Amino acid sequence: MTPGALHGVLVPLTTPFDAVTGDVAPVELRALARELLARGVDGLVVAGTTGEGPLLDDGERTHLVEWLREVVPEDRWLIAGTGAESTRATVRATELAGAAGADAVLVRPPAYFGGALSPAALADHYVRVADASPVPVLVYNIPKHTHVLLHESVLRALAEHERVIGFKDSSGDLKVLAGYRAAAPRLKALVGSGALFYPALELGADGGVLAVAAFAAERCVALYRAFRAADRRAAGAEQERLTPLARAIVGELGIPGVKAALDLVGLPGGPVRPPLAALDERHRSRVAALLADAGLRAAA
Fold first, then answer.
1. Which pairs with CB-CB distance under 8 Å and at least 24 residues apart come from 222-231?
2. Which member of 62, 90, 126, 168 is catalytic?
């Protein structure tokens, strides 16, 4: 059973690690999930970019889904990142996620040989994954990290596949988002940039998978609800508060910045997994100042 229509605010969950062993910390993971769900988000995404997915092993990714399935209710989405470098490995990761209880999977394109893959080859990759998937599939465009910008023709080729339900665009370019929507109007459109949430909704996006929502969930939910209520002024005001957080903490400081922000607002953040490195005190102070400016109470 899957939740209702895919829309609203989804949080790409960070992965808490034990500070001593470096292992995934399931108690902190579930505590973070419960808190974010209580703040009104429509779903969680695990093992994605913000969740340090490429730094997790197969067993860890499967356990993340299993642990979170215990706390995510049936009316909220639990989505797992399953992108890998081969079609075979992506299919296997997708099957494991479905068996563990994921409602859907988020699939980035292969990156290592990305420069050698034509749009047709990438479309074939996604078709094969979707054909084999036990759960709905979301296409994930994140050129910042994969260095692969999915062409509109890839979305067009997947537009009517019964297992493909949507896409997440993290290009940071509204023209790309608009192009994908035009190429595949049936698919649910999710934006991956918190700095563009409001304008993306104006363009017809159904929601967002927003790293800024990890530590500013109420702001993101308020923006979405104001937009749905046709209160453009309130939605715009919330976007003005979110934009500096999304650009500086998420865009510039990345996962270490997001985890530092979580710590500072009293939620489980904790260490990143090497080779990522924690913020130094100067950057941590900058995060604290940004949170204070946005009206988010920092922990003592």
1. 223/197, 223/198, 224/8, 224/9, 224/197, 227/198, 227/201
2. 168
Q: Give the number of domains in the chain.
A: 1
* Residue 233 CB-density burial (10 A; 0-12 exposed, 13-18 middle, 19+ buried): exposed
Specify the amino acid at residue 286: R
Look up the domain containing 31 and give its range: 8-231
Closest CA to 56 of 82, 94, 29: 82
DSSP 46-81: ESSTTTTGGGS-HHHHHHHHHHHHTTS-TTSEEEEE
Q: Which residues contact 231 (CB under 8 A, 6 or more apart)?
A: none
**180 labelled catalytic:** no
When pLDDT is averaged across residues 86-98 and rounded to a whole number, the result is 98
Catalytic residue among 49, 50, 146, 243: 49
CA pair distance 269, 273, nearest whole angstrom: 12
pLDDT at 299: 61
CATH number for the domain including 44? 3.20.20.70
Q: Evaluate whether residue 290 is within a structural domain.
A: no
Task: For residue 244, tell me if it sits in a domain.
Answer: no
The residue-averaged pLDDT of 45-72 equals: 97
